[in-house]
Amino acid sequence: MLEALNDFLSGKLLIVLIVGLGSYFTLRSRFVQFRHFGHMFSVFKESLRGQAGQLSSFQALMLSLAGRVGAGNIAGVGIAVTLGGPGAVFWMWVTALVGMSSSFFECTLAQVYKRSDGDGLYRGGPAYYIQHGLKLRWMAVVFAVLLLVTYGFTFNGLQSYTVTHSLQNAFGFEPRQTGIALAALLCLVFIGGIKRIASVSDLLVPVKTLAYIGVTLYVIITQIEHVPAMLETIIKSAFGLDPAFGGLLGSAIVMGVKRGVFANEAGLGSAPNVAAVAAVRHPAAQGVVQAFSVFLDTFVICTCTALLILLSGFYTPGFEGDGIALTQNSLAAVVGDWGRLFVSVALSLFVFTCILYNYYLGETSLQFLSRNRLVLIAYRALVVLLILWGSVQDLSTVFAFADITMTCLAFVNLAALVMLFKVGLRVMRDYDEQRRAGIAQPVFDAARFADLDLDPQAWPAGQHADRPVPAAPQLAPAQR
């Protein structure tokens, strides 16, 4: 019953909504992701510069990539190609293109309605823009509870099972012992809060991403003469024009869109919680950075995996097996048996940073629901216990339930995005007007948006483009 319900909600209804609304946002914004595509790289360069005591836009990007770039980029692409053929990759690209606009608006709104947390940092996300933008506290609470259950608890247990059993298959490590080591390492990170999580992500995300891209590019370069023909196969298969994959047209579309949605998370409501933590000059700048994150996840990393599989010669139509095995065997077919070990290590790093990302999403939800310090400590302890339990338990049934709660999460977020879309357009146009006026780094002046429920500590009124953004003030203990 869970599988049937999940297939309808996430396999059909959610796909239609995300692709449909992503297309609508793209048209209404005059193709914001294309207009700002070249600008994304300059914003990304600027994001490297942070403010003292604040999290930079780059750190927020690394934290969001910790979640976006995960098992879906290895196993998910393998599943899409196995069930939908090469054409599924094309539909992943299409999904990412429209998803970039959804990510732009949800992350921009997260910045607009973010709140100072009293410690000089920021919190935000769909729960915050639902409460302060729509004035619907009950809807915000529903979102926060769904996010806490889905990411804070369930997905962490599942990710623990994935990494411990991957290492057991590759190196023979005992899952229980690996689970204890994993929990101990995560404890050290959790105790340091968001700053330590961001610092660890700063280190691990570029390492895991560049190492994985480097190895897959090696395979692509060694087979470079076959790449044009393979790209042609991908495009032909997407429209049923390749005889070898003609019967997979329907599956190519469904699997490509579904795996694309769950790989880049655009519109699901998870990434905005991370996007809100950055100290930026203008909310739309973080929207541009997060749109770039979707591009990097799908067009770079997922494409590298797809080409690795298709160029290796291991994959054949009708292949039966899981996505991880397909990727492992494809790499091993080119570089030797160490390729299987590399994929296991890469998957472990991907999963480790995903757990950090999931934990932070849960903490953000908890902070929205309760600011009690003891509740936060209890949450951390429970997450660690779930990681230990998940390391030795197959949580596939729980995962099916979590898929449903995540789909419900996306429905709530998409409804909020539709209702707040005009606000998002206003902020985008303000950003565009400043850029047209020759201002390289637009600044958000809260005085021009006095009708919105903004946090004056996060967005002081009367800012000008030639002034830096003030850091959120530190409050005395008595004020917290």
Summing up helix and strand content along with how strands pair, one would put the structural category as: mainly alpha
Measured between the Cα atoms of the first and last residue, the distance is: 47 Å
* Beta-strand percentage range: under 5%
- The CATH topology is Amino acid/polyamine transporter I
Number of helices: 19
Q: Average pLDDT across residues?
A: 82
**What is the 3D form?**
globular
Helix content: over 70%
- Radius of gyration, CA atoms, in whole angstroms: 22 Å
Total beta strand runs = 2
The name of the CATH superfamily reads Amino acid/polyamine transporter I
Sequence of secondary-structure elements: HHHHHHEEHHHHHHHHHHHHH
Reported CATH architecture: Up-down Bundle
The count of domains is 1
Main sheet characteristics: 2 strands, antiparallel
Strand order of the largest sheet: 1-2
Contiguous low-pLDDT stretches (5 residues minimum) are: 465-480
- State the CATH class: Mainly Alpha
Subcellular location: Cell inner membrane; Cell membrane
GO molecular function: amino acid:sodium symporter activity
Transmembrane segments: 6-27, 65-84, 138-158, 178-198, 210-231, 291-315, 341-362, 374-392, 398-421
Keywords: Cell inner membrane, Cell membrane, Membrane, Symport, Transmembrane, Transmembrane helix, Transport
